[in-house]
Design brief:
Order of helices and strands: HHH
Number of helices: 3
Strand content: under 5%
Largest sheet: none
Structural class: mainly alpha
Distance between the termini: 30 Å
């Protein structure tokens, strides 16, 4: 099986980061409206973490080093 290269990883990182940002925004907006989302924020973070670990497992070492280097300030684990 082919592993994700640097270019693939850039796209995947952007997708995970965008999803995480939108999920946080959705939960914030729901709280402002006095509503409770069906899926809790902690569950979403748990699922995002699982997906991120699977992506990491299927990423080349070079691409993983690049991802860690450039995502250092926006680490998905900071939100868990």
């Amino acid at each position: 099986m082919t592993k994700f290269n640097v270019q693939d990883r850039i796209v995947l990182d952007e997708m995970v980061d965008t999803f995480t940002t939108e999920m946080i925004r959705h939960h914030h907006d729901a709280a402002l409206d006095g509503k409770t989302p069906i899926i809790s924020k902690s569950y979403w973070f748990q699922m995002i973490h699982e997906v991120q670990m699977k992506i990491d497992d299927f990423t080349t070492k070079k691409a993983l080093r690049q991802s860690i280097k450039y995502r250092k300030n926006n680490n998905y684990e900071d939100n868990i």
